Amino acid sequence: MPPALPTTLPTALEPALQPGGVVAPRLRAEGVTLGYGATPVVHDVDLDVRPGALTVLVGANASGKSTLVRGLARLLTPLRGRITLDGEDLGRLPTRRVARTVGVLPQSPVAPDGIRVGELVAHGRYPHQSFFRGHRSDDDDVVARALDATDTADLVQRRVAELSGGQRQRVWIAMALAQQPRVLLLDEPTSALDVAHQVEVLDVLREEVAGGRTVVVVLHDLTLAARYADELVVLAGGRVVAQGDPTATLTEEVVGTAFGVRARVLTDPDTGRPVILPRSSTTAG
User: Going along the chain, which residue ranges are E strands?
Assistant: First the structure.
């Protein structure tokens, strides 16, 4: 079972404190249009990522979820508008500062041939190293904590290619955690995983949020998204069509608009969160 969901959440205007009293950074998209070449995919999006919370992006295929994550990670330059980190233009910040603050796990990452789990996770420490000062004294401890957090410490000598899908995803998340970003962006980290492995991955992300990290994740399963999200963002046609608390956001009307499917929205008796049941076009009534 996932950890108990918080009963109170910070509002979008409240700064979130990480352990040690550090204020979590604020990541914003302001009137952002993103695309490839001159073709826009995401249109005029305003998004204020809630610091210290788990924000889930959902939407149909080609709705702009992955493109928006790439923009937030500075992998795409906005065609219009801007993305800011603590009020500063993300595109103008030093690369090392961004790498230390914002971590990204793209869809289907590929590990180098023959690399072992410990080596891959240690790659997450590179933004904190320099030409003159390579391996830092605390690197091993940080890597060990990332392995423990993802329950992958027993895999450290295994080759990544030998792992199951769920194990690989947890190892990639461990690498991202070893980077020690204060904002973590993940694009479909549960895709192609069975439900047990999906829950494992999402439990890890909830624990990271409980520790003060800001997490933005793309998911396809609406019921899991509603269960784990503090903030839910629904995209359709490259635009945000709904945003907010999952209970208020995932209505039958919103699901119909975003996914083009009729659905029944029920209430999970354990969490009070929405449970989405798609309805066949032949369903009686």
Answer: 17-18, 22-23, 27-36, 39-49, 54-59, 80-85, 88-89, 102-105, 183-187, 214-218, 231-236, 239-244, 263-267, 274-278
